[in-house]
Amino acid sequence: MQTIAFSELFPLFNSASPETLEWLMSNAVEHEYPAGRAVLMEDAWGNAVYFVESGWVKVRRHAGEEVVTLAILGRGDFFGEMAILDESPRSTDVVALSPVKLLSISAQRFIQTLFKDSQLHHRMLQLMVRRLRQTNFRFQLRHQPPAIKLANTLVALAENYGRKTAQGPEIFNIPVKDLADVADITVDEAIKIMEKLESKAWIKIDPARQVIHLVNMRQITHLSQRM
After folding, report:
1. Where are the domains of the chain?
2. What's the mean pLDDT when you consider all of the chain?
3. Selecting from 3.90.78.10, 1.10.287.4070, 1.10.8.60, 1.10.10.10, what CATH number does the domain 143-224 have?
4. For residue range 182-207, what is the model confidence (pLDDT) as tens digits?
5. How far are the Cα atoms of 6, 50, 93, 161 from residue 2, in angstroms, in the given order?
6. Considering the entire predicted model, what is its pTM?
7. Domain 3-139, CATH 2.60.120.10 — does that match?
8. How many CA atoms lie within 13 A of 80 on its CB side?
């Protein structure tokens, strides 16, 4: 992969110097996992940062006997940075939702790079603040109707990771339990809302290809903003 393609794929590296990009690429390790495979385990010590080259993963936490999906990440995003920045065991695990390709950079090399490249350091802080704001926004949604919560989740996934097609943004056909967890609604509510969106032709689910087309992105976005 060329350095330009590398920086375009991963927003974290948009402002990194060419020397930084070349050094990171020379030290990155490629991984491939099938759907359902655990990529990182909770309570393991952080030894690398992972970047999603293709595919979809879910970040989840064990709460007693329950397993709750906290986030869904796709192409261009990264995970594992918290455990290496505060030098503590991971508080979540990560599981592949689809076949996934990852690049990993060891904790030591990643920390060294942050110290060497101030632009990368600044960009890292920006993206972490953005994640914090997204968490705060989800907290603000907690008393909103389930349809608004789910619409916000679909819009965020499409905007962050969706692939443009003639039928609208295309995202992975995420299991309804994971969608419900991320949207903070019940599984039954998620099923009913998805069925209604499909009946209104706002979305189109293609089980064979395991994708969801947000056919009427304008209406879904409008629904997400009814707060």
Report:
1. 3-139, 143-224
2. 89
3. 1.10.10.10
4. 999 999 999 999 999 999 999 999 99
5. 6, 19, 31, 21
6. 0.89
7. yes
8. 25
